[in-house]
Design brief:
By secondary structure, the protein is an alpha/beta fold. It has 15 helices and 11 strands. Strand 8, helix 7 and strand 9 form a beta-alpha-beta unit. Helix 7 crosses helix 8, helix 9 crosses helix 10 and helix 11 runs antiparallel to helix 15.
Length: about 325
């Protein structure tokens, strides 16, 4: 059994990574239904929250069916981050996660996200003060280091644990790599194998098949997997991995009817939560994967990703189901 603070999880839990404009309540609900053990919100700006920015505040919406759910926040200013703790607690999440890993320039340029990997002492101090500020378990998501020459993740993880961090998720790339090249899980395994470490160590990066998840568990010995891009338009990934763990076989392909139903529910939940315009726009990135592998699909995909009218998108779903209902997915 794996524990984050007092939260008990199964052996080798699967976590939905926090992804901007992806891991919102509608998508988290779908992933939870398909076997995600822990889900995280999109990352929330501490500066946005203390200014009461509408987009930041909206990201604090969480629902009982999602639990356990973590709210992830980012920032580099101590006062702002501590004020954010007080605001976030009112949403009653199960976990507060600190983003020390986002590589995007607009975040890094403010010293936040992966930018803080240049100042490990500040990283440690921020974590320590945030742990003191809340009764909730505080976890951290980070990267191996700023660049290849500054990888000190074993030391960093140990220092974060020593100031009260309850779990750490590590992406197997440096900030300099962004999302290029292959994720290196060996340094993450070195963190796990450090005899001083006793908190869960979760791996992140390139877990894009059940076999990869099994490799992370069996060959690298990590406590769980945090999964991001492989879930976009594929909330079934969690179920597929768990089926593979249990049986050693792949789950039968997801049927067209299931794909259309998931896409329909996803869009409708997004509209209900965000309104028509944003709901339609922010669900578009999922459609390529929802319908991956369908021949001559371009016409329908273009309608789905260019139409601003949900009625047209729903109609496209119906046409796809009617035309390709007998399509056999590989």
């Amino acid at each position: 059994m794996v524990k984050i603070g007092d939260i008990e999880l199964s052996n080798f839990p699967l976590l939905l990574a926090p992804m901007e404009d992806v891991s919102d309540p509608p998508f988290r609900a779908l992933c939870k239904e398909q076997g995600a053990d822990v889900v995280y919100t999109e990352f929330v700006s501490s500066e946005g929250l203390i200014r009461n920015a509408a987009k930041s505040v909206m990201k604090l919406d969480i629902y009982e069916k999602e639990r356990p759910v973590g709210i992830q926040i980012f920032g580099a200013n101590m006062d702002s981050m501590l004020q954010t703790i007080d605001i976030v607690e009112k949403s009653n999440p199960d976990i507060i996660d600190i983003n020390f890993g986002c590589p995007v320039k607009k975040v890094v340029s403010k010293g936040a996200g992966a930018g803080i990997l240049k100042d490990i002492c500040l990283m440690e101090k921020l974590t320590a003060e945030m742990v003191k500020r809340t009764h909730l378990p505080v976890t951290v998501k980070t990267r191996l280091g700023w660049d290849h020459d500054s990888i000190k993740i074993v030391e960093v993880a140990e220092r974060l644990q020593d100031v009260g961090c309850k779990a750490i998720s590590i992406h197997g790339r440096t900030r300099a790599q962004m999302y290029k090249g292959e994720a290196d899980w060996k340094p993450i395994a070195a963190v796990k194998n450090n005899s001083r470490m006793h908190i869960p160590v979760f791996g992140n990066g390139d877990v894009d098949s059940p076999e990869k998840a099994a490799l992370m568990r069996d060959s690298f010995g990590l406590d769980g997997a945090m999964i991001g891009r492989a879930t976009i338009g594929n909330p079934w990934f969690f179920k597929q991995v768990k089926h593979f763990f249990k049986t050693g076989n792949h789950l039968p392909p997801i049927s067209m009817a299931e794909r259309v139903e998931a896409a329909r529910r996803h869009l409708q939940m997004s509209i209900d939560w965000k309104g028509e315009k944003l709901g339609v726009f922010e669900t578009r990135r999922h459609y390529t994967n929802y319908f991956k592998g369908i021949p001559n699909f371009k016409e329908y995909r273009m309608r789905m990703v260019t139409s601003d009218d949900s009625k047209d998108v729903f109609a496209a779903f119906d046409e796809v189901l009617d035309k390709f209902s007998n399509h056999q997915f590989a």
